[in-house]
Design brief:
Blueprint lengths: L11 H11 L12 E6 L5 H12 L3 E5 L1 H4 L7 H11 E7 L3 H10 L4 E3 L7 H15 L6 E5 L4 H12 L3 E5 L8 H9 L5 E3 L2 H5 L4 E4 L11 H7 L7 H4 L7 E4 L11 H4 L6 H21 L3
Helix pairs in contact: 1-6, 1-13, 2-13, 4-5, 6-7, 6-13
The chain binds phosphoric acid mono(formamide)ester and norvaline.
Phosphoric acid mono(formamide)ester (CP) binds next to helix 2.
């Protein structure tokens, strides 16, 4: 049995298999008569719907659990909630504040744990993004991804997804918002070596894909104003997009703040692929669930 807490839980061949399973037009009904618990400590538009529908497409029954319902570590410990949910469900997905919560779940779970976003990683989004990039270019190996913004949960999962797929990653972040040495060391161990710069132009020049995310993630709302100041100059604008390769596309995991990390003319413009990107969340979730259940989940 395997868990999926970040993309670096996978070997390159396993990641490639998940992408191929995601495009299976007649997926086997591996969840027939079984439940999938989806536990959320934070809001979600895409992840909840995409994962629920992926479960349905595999014949299963999604069980959504909102933040107030189980009271992680308040009404009951994370470990006991996990052991309980594993009695009825073939898989448990969780969107949490602290990454240590999904690690604690994985440590005691009898069924696969899927990280549906933590403060550290957003791996199901990164897998979906590979599908979007592959659909655009026909391949992943050799592509250059430029990420402009916070070296956050999204950037970290993208770094592994890109590295394991043979892509180059250049990331532009303001001083103090880049990957720490501990992250870089772990990325190098997986053959992922992002180039970090402070000037967005240096990241975007000639890139095939330009990606950004919000400047203040869920849980960082109190830092939003300071971050707006610190990230000034890091907006993905039409001028910045013009530095990328001629057929470059723009991606954003969403939700987006037009006028902050991206200009409306870019995200709503001809190079944006954010809606196919959102749609791919469901296909990627299906591929991931199929793979986890193949592993004995
Ligand atoms: N991209 C993403 O995870 O969206 P939600 O927060 O709406 O699930
Ligand atoms: N970095 C963002 C991603 C949202 C999908 C957050 O954690 O809020």
């Amino acid at each position: 049995m395997r868990h999926f807490l970040d993309v670096d839980d996978l070997k390159p061949s396993e990641l490639a298999r998940i992408l191929n399973l995601a495009t299976d037009p007649k997926p086997p009904q591996v969840l027939a008569g079984r439940g999938a618990a989806l536990l959320f400590e934070k809001p979600s538009a895409r992840t909840r719907s995409a994962t629920e529908l992926a479960v349905v497409q595999l014949g299963g029954h999604p069980v959504y659990i909102g933040p107030a319902e189980v009271g992680l570590d308040q009404r009951e410990s994370v470990e006991d909630v996990t052991r309980t949910l594993a009695c009825y469900n073939a898989v448990i997905g969780a969107r949490v504040f602290a990454h240590s919560t999904v690690e604690r779940m994985a440590a005691v779970s009898e069924v696969p744990i899927v990280n549906l976003l933590s403060d550290h990683a957003h791996p199901t989004q990164a897998v979906a993004d590979l599908l979007t990039m592959r659909a655009e270019s026909g391949h992943l190996e050799g592509l250059t991804l430029a990420y402009v913004g916070d070296a956050n949960n999204m950037a970290r999962s993208l770094a592994y997804a890109a590295g394991l797929s043979g892509m180059a990653l250049r990331i532009a972040s303001p001083a103090g918002y880049a990957f720490k040495e501990s992250d870089l060391r772990r990325m190098r161990r997986h053959g992922c070596e992002p180039v970090q710069v402070e000037n967005p132009d240096d990241a975007v020049r000639g890139a095939d894909v330009v990606y950004t995310d919000v400047w203040a993630s869920m849980g960082q709302e109190q830092e939003a104003e300071k971050r707006r100041q610190d990230f000034a100059g890091f907006t993905v604008s039409r001028r910045l997009m013009a530095q990328a390769a001629p057929r470059a596309v723009f991606l954003h995991c969403l939700p987006a703040h037009r006028g902050e990390e991206v200009e409306a003319e870019v995200i709503d413009g001809p190079r944006s692929r954010v809606w196919p990107q959102a749609a791919n969340r469901m296909h990627a979730a299906r591929g991931l669930l199929l793979w986890l259940l193949e592993q004995g989940g």
